[in-house]
Amino acid sequence: MKPFFLIRCVCVTLMLGSLLPVSADKVVALPAYLAQAQSNYNQYMQMGYSATRQRNYSAALNYFKQALQERPGDRYATTAVNNIQIYVSRDRRNGNKRQTYVTYIPTNLGKPVRQVQGGTRAGQRLSENGAVCIPGKKRLMALTPTFDPMQRTTAANPSFLFYVPQTSAPVMELVLSDDQDNVVYQQTLPTPTKAGIVSLNLPEKSDVPSLKVGKTYHWDFSIICDRSDRQLDYIVSGSIQRIAPDAALMTELKKVKPEEQAAIYALSGFWEDSLAILSELRKSSPNDLTIKNDWEDLLRSGGLEEITQEPLVSCCTIQ
């Protein structure tokens, strides 16, 4: 009986040992095969982005597909594959004449996905006039990459763009706070009369502080259904950081036209700058097919396929 008893003790000890919590000061390494897959994935993605910058779209497509094999269903790799397939198809239609397409390359590969708040109360919400606040199926959206938790910009007074669905809400609100949760800017505006994309620029005024280089800011944009009950708000939130561009980037930007600047900014990870340029170009040249394609390419590269066909609408003047 003793050998049997000892064997049972050893087995129980091993089982309990596997269930005991790991000490906080100990680091548990990934299994070798998982670490290798992660390493391969990162390598293929970076090689794909490098090939994209060089306009070698066939090579980029191959690298992104290999990354997708390492991590099936990955949002970054899936988006990259879809975008590059469109570029390759266009090049073929253009007689294999390579062009520079506007595609956003994220700088935070592998970091957590940004969480977007859709509202503070579930169920149907009514506006002050008793009508359904947002009657359709389309939702409030920020024009920021769906997989990137942080916008980067070189601008001291950046633009914030949002898709506002048809709404009976009387007003909407933009609030910008610093990293200490101090509100640095707050503005309430009337909602647009029709659904579309609105662009709100941080005004260049003495009483409105510009973004500081290296600082991170948090923003909230709300559709206010009922000003007496803010729990009914529809809200999207995000963060933005101002980055000082390096000399090489500035030199490259000075050599090219705005539409090419948009491509350079996007390839360099500056989503806001690229988006702001293209939104202005779309307003000034609404029938330009190249600008329209560039706009759609950028939105698609940020995971915003569902609003590529939405119009830019004028709604208000931000003060």
From TrEMBL:
Keywords, in A-Z order: Signal, TPR repeat
Q: Which InterPro entries match?
A: DUF928, TPR-like_helical_dom_sf, TPR_rpt
Stretches forming TPR repeats: 41-74
Secretion signal: which residues? 1-24
Q: Does Signal count among this protein's keywords? A: yes
Protein name stated in the entry: Uncharacterized protein
